[in-house]
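Holo prediction. Input below; ligand is copper (II) ion.
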Amino acid sequence: MLTRRQIFKTGAATGLLAVGSGAAIALGTTGAASKAVAAEQMFRVPLRVPRALRPLRTKGRSIAGFTDYDFYRLATREVETTILPGTTTRMRTFNGDLTPVIRATRGRPVVIQQVNELNVPFSMHLHGGHVPARFDGHPNDENLPESSRVFVYPNTQQASTMWIHDHSHQAHAENIYRGVAAGYVLTDEFEERLPLPKGQYDVPLYLRDGKFAADGTLVYDMEDFMDRPTVLVNGAPRPFFEVAARKYRFRLTNTSNERAFLLQLGEEGHEMTHIASDGGLLPAPVATKTMEIWPAERQEVVIDFSRFPVGSKVVLRNLIGYPGEPAEVMRFDVVRAADDPSSVPDVLRPAPDLGTATVERKFVMSFDPATGHHLINNKQFDVNRVDLKPKLGDTEIWTIENTDTKFGIPHSLHTHLEHFLVVDRDGKAPGPSEAGLKDTITVMPGKKARVKIKFTDYTGKFMYHCHLMGHLTMGMMGQMEVVD
Ligand code: C2O
Ligand code: CU
Ligand code: CU
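Structure of the complex:
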């Protein structure tokens, strides 16, 4: 039987492993202290709905050719904050806040001055952003402690839910784990015109896990990712959220290092309506009883609480937690009646035409047990190597193949710069839930997926990688240079 340490070495990093795996079940007996903390902290704290940051100014000196833009300052810093009631935890944050949110509008640039007050390098990346290479958070562009850097996000892309995190060479996994993340919600006219729930009924939910000691200390051990039984939603442990008996839009983002969620509403699986994924709205809504979300992915659902009588409490559960952990993620308390002018139209946003592919590439994702490295096409990441050179204007088909059947290791592929469309999985057309633009796709061991991607607007160097942070740290990243 594998030990916990060996499982990390093999890189198995998923809740799915816990389902029906003897190796994982053996882990259920360990981590008793952190699990006790997790169980004690259930439904004691209300959900905090992140308020959008206010821009510091809306005009300024010309930056990247723009003078009209929303200007923000995001300072990365450590603060003492309360996560578990009655204790304090040292967290890394933007501006002292756990997941502040920037709301942006298509066509209006956002400029962010990022000030690094941490004692580790930081390289800010807008995950899902279509931005020039120099603002993309290349690992060579690290912002060193006590320095500051300006980022310009042009916001020419269509509406979607994105997030901001570190991409520094060595500290990224720990910086994300210790809390530095910001939400970035881009809207546009097309989406604003739809009758979807808006305003206070449009709520971002950032899901992640962590290991907490009883005194509130956040414990980081990269190898110990199966013992992170406290689930945080918007920085609160398994919170409750008082809702009206009407429809809400939830923008789910998984900011965990390694954990996947398979979410279900209530014991019996009440219907949710899937409306958007990484790159924005799906072509059409999809009724579903479960919602799967892997690290760095975004999935948006509309939940209609009008089917529950006022006074009901409905628990959102994770069906693929590790053994011995509470399955609960958060609880919705239906506390009042409300009018509901919102609705989910039958047609949302057609997928764009990415043209005909003229180039095909293959990405084989594998683990090397001899070195402990995770590889793409048998290579470990090298910042001085360019792995591919896509041409501006070209459409390509990428095949992503996960060959790690031996230890059952899932992998994802996330690309910077562009979103893609899923062409097929093992030769089968994607279901309606994968019919929209994506930037992160998870492929299970022994499986293959093909995606179509088109390179537009920006040349330069961009990353692609597995978004399971342990794998990324162990080399599972490549570099492309988009050329004219
Ligand atoms: Cu979430 Cu390379 O990024
Ligand atoms: Cu990214
Ligand atoms: Cu991986």
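The longest strand covers residues 66-81. That is the main takeaway for now.
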